From TrEMBL:
The gene is moaA. It holds the Pfam family Radical_SAM. Catalyzes the cyclization of GTP to (8S)-3',8-cyclo-7,8-dihydroguanosine 5'-triphosphate. GTP binds at R36, R87, T118, K179, R282, V283, R284. This is GTP 3',8-cyclase. Its cofactor is [4Fe-4S] cluster. Residues 27-251 form the Radical SAM core domain. It comes from Williamsia maris. Keywords: 4Fe-4S, GTP-binding, Iron, Iron-sulfur, Lyase, Metal-binding, Molybdenum cofactor biosynthesis, Nucleotide-binding, S-adenosyl-L-methionine.
Amino acid sequence: MNSIPLGIPTARDLSVGRPDVPGLVDRFGRVATDLRVSVTDRCNLRCTYCMPAEGLEWMPGDELLSTTEVSRLIKIAVDHLGIEEIRFTGGEPLLFHGLGELIGCAADLVPRPQISLTTNALGLEHRAGALAAAGLDRVNISLDTVDRDTFASITRRDRLPAVLAGIDACRAAGIAPIKVNAVLLRGVNDDGACDLLRYCIDRDVELRFIEQMPIDSDNAWAAQNMITAEEILAILRSEFSLHPESEARGSAPAELWTVDESRHRVGVIASVTRPFCGDCNRVRLTADGSVRSCLFGAEEFDLRGQLRSSEPTESVDRAIAQRWREAVWRKQPGHGINDPGFLHPTRPMSAIGG
Ligand SMILES: Nc1nc2c(ncn2[C@@H]2O[C@H](COP(=O)(O)OP(=O)(O)OP(=O)(O)O)[C@@H](O)[C@H]2O)c(=O)[nH]1
Ligand SMILES: C[S@@+](CC[C@H](N)C(=O)[O-])C[C@H]1O[C@@H](n2cnc3c(N)ncnc32)[C@H](O)[C@@H]1O
Ligand code: SF4
Ligand code: SF4
């Protein structure tokens, strides 16, 4: 007798074809070893390319992971899944009260992961020493300009001095390397790119210019407005000589150039025009406890439900690790920004963890 399809959904096996290995492998041969943890979706700046002036509807408090829950997931990631680097991000991670404690917990793990922070640096002036003492290895600071008025117009807050003080405090605390991330916006801060590079060279900080991505909450991104990597390099070459860095890039998003044949380098993160998805080693955890295998992925895998469903036991941790593996196994090959059918991510960058 022929069977008649009834259209009844069957349980999907999310790991079809996945080899039985502990690490976070995907279908395209990549292995995720770099965990980016968003600890909050809130922020005290309102960068125009990231958030609207009025802010966003923040995640409700009871949906956010606690410090204990984040530490447990980080431990699972290192113990079971081969995670080697943990980056705390957001929203603005310095707004999360448990950040120092989380860094301390991560630093106690064996093998100890690299611990880094991506931040706007507001308040870092007073906290860099304590965070370094807790175990913070390195820091990336967002700074789009060293002109105070331009800074205020991009971030909608007059806080440039606090950011610069945060950079100085990181240097004094011995955090290294310090990197600066800058998004260039046409007609807004592109004429200040060389001044920003000079500022970073003077402080021995590595500057990277980022191509703006279509992950703003306003959906205002347009390819023709974006300043491309080629344009960024042309702007810099008007005042500096640049030579491609010989060091292998690996999974790093930034392509590097040495500046004026010195030991200083500048980077360009060309996510749109020269995507680096083929070598991606990233996986993300949102502040409300979902795994996102790609910044631009359509799928999320909730871990919070399992985390809160019962007492923490080794077998629950193993089940969480398995779900995490399934999430990464299904990771898409790339972001598809340049494809005609590209869909904006369902969450803005600040809610995913940049
Ligand atoms: N498309 C894409 N862009 C990313 C990804 N991770 C980071 N970026 C871009 O790179 C910028 C800088 O990211 P950071 O958090 O400073 O760190 P990083 O450059 O990834 O890491 P390091 O160079 O190792 O410090 C972000 O603002 C994004 O614009 C990613 O997984 N995919
Ligand atoms: C979302 S923020 C979170 C961490 C922290 N608040 C900060 O600004 O560093 C992380 C990074 O994302 C970058 N970013 C935000 N929106 C972006 C966009 N539309 N395109 C490219 N990068 C973006 C920021 O410049 C920042 O370096
Ligand atoms: S880029 Fe960072 S600092 Fe700027 S609004 Fe987004 S989350 Fe806040
Ligand atoms: S867009 Fe997705 S696949 Fe590409 S580098 Fe970023 S996280 Fe990895």
